[in-house]
Amino acid sequence: MAAAPELDRPTLAALIALVRKHTGITMGEHKRNLLERRLRPRMDALALSGYRAYLDRVEQDSDEVPHFIDLVTTNDTLFFRTPQIWAYLEQEFLPQWWSEHRGKRLDIWSAAAASGEELYSLAMLCEEFHAKHPAFRYRIVGTDISRQMLDLARSGCYSGRSVQRLREAYPARLANYFQPSPQGCMQVNDTLRKNIELRCHNLLHPLQPQQQFDLVLLRNVLIYFDLAHQHTVLEQARRSMAHHAVMIIGESESISRLDTAYTLARPMIYQMKAVAS
Ligand SMILES: C[S@@+](CC[C@H](N)C(=O)[O-])C[C@H]1O[C@@H](n2cnc3c(N)ncnc32)[C@H](O)[C@@H]1O
């Protein structure tokens, strides 16, 4: 086996700058091993001589950029990740929203949807609410910067720890909304898919077309940005939120150091600040 090519310091710095340019993600030099581990197989597949050659390829060939983005983003997710959020959505948010907006459609944005577990968890809650309130309607937009993740979300095909989590914690939901597929995974059924739309989107840019969402899940993505980019992402998200909207972030995230349009309602849950008239 050929010896691993060296990721020298100038190339590491240039790769870190390229990650920031294409994703907004801030990486320090301590991410050297992560970058080596993730980029090496791609470099080998393209028969490139080293990291500098791969860097040049990404800079010169725009078709390589989506692959680069897929490799440098971290896409961990789970169905019903952080159970207290899902209890809040099911027991408080949905009944309250329905009592205040009967007759309207609930618009939800899963803003860093990764492979889609968050989207389909939302759809399961909405379907269950719809079963109790037949006039309830909803639509969920899922976005991510990684095309590979969006393809996975679109396939709705899950295995491994994603399915294990459902089997252990929510067996009735696994039985109700999934079926075994010939590929050997568990596939979401059409009931869950019908109100979902997926789009590739960079959170640092305005979401197009503009929409006024009632609920935005921006979970476990802010941690990858520095304060300036967190501010930009939150400001872009605000433009796509109705004045009564609720935004939820991840459990290891905080936006308290930033001056934003959001006010903390309880841990992880934010509301838009009332605008002074
Ligand atoms: C750790 S996952 C979070 C998934 C899910 N929200 C959750 O909490 O389980 C972070 C996701 O953010 C996406 N991401 C990173 N930078 C992004 C950007 N600038 N715009 C949009 N999505 C981005 C990654 O591709 C990845 O799928």
UniProtKB/TrEMBL annotation:
SUPFAM superfamilies: Chemotaxis receptor methyltransferase CheR, N-terminal domain, S-adenosyl-L-methionine-dependent methyltransferases. PROSITE patterns: CHER. Keywords: Methyltransferase, S-adenosyl-L-methionine, Transferase. It catalyses: L-glutamyl-[protein] + S-adenosyl-L-methionine = [protein]-L-glutamate 5-O-methyl ester + S-adenosyl-L-homocysteine. It comes from the Bacteria. GO terms for molecular function: protein-glutamate O-methyltransferase activity. Coiled coil: none annotated. Gene3D superfamilies: Chemotaxis receptor methyltransferase CheR, N-terminal domain, Vaccinia Virus protein VP39. It is an enzyme of class 2 (transferase). Pfam families: CheR, CheR_N. PANTHER family: CHEMOTAXIS PROTEIN METHYLTRANSFERASE. This is protein-glutamate O-methyltransferase. It comes from Pseudoduganella ginsengisoli.
